[in-house]
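[step 3/7] inverse_fold.run input=structure_tokens len=80
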């Protein structure tokens, strides 16, 4: 039974990897608390450079344009 679950999860991981941008991939690696903090910062309009530098300080590498593309809906993430 676990083999099937593992196979399904592996497939879902591949689909996720193909359908979302680098920022979304980074976002899901963050703790729930950090996800909430970053979401609020994005909603408040905190400067991209500030967010990118803060993420880098915590060991997460993401570019300004990548974050901006996600922020403004120009990335490959599914649109609601």
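[step 3/7] decode complete -> sequence:
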């Amino acid at each position: 039974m676990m083999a099937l679950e593992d196979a399904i999860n592996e497939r879902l991981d591949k689909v996720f990897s193909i359908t979302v941008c680098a920022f979304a991939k980074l976002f899901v690696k963050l703790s729930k608390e950090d996800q909430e903090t970053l979401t609020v910062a994005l909603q408040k309009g905190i400067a991209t450079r500030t967010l990118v530098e803060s993420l880098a300080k915590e060991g997460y590498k993401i570019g300004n344009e990548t974050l901006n593309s996600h922020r403004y809906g120009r990335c490959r993430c599914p649109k609601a």
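[step 4/7] annotate
The chain has a mean pLDDT of 88.
The first helix runs from residue 2 to 19.
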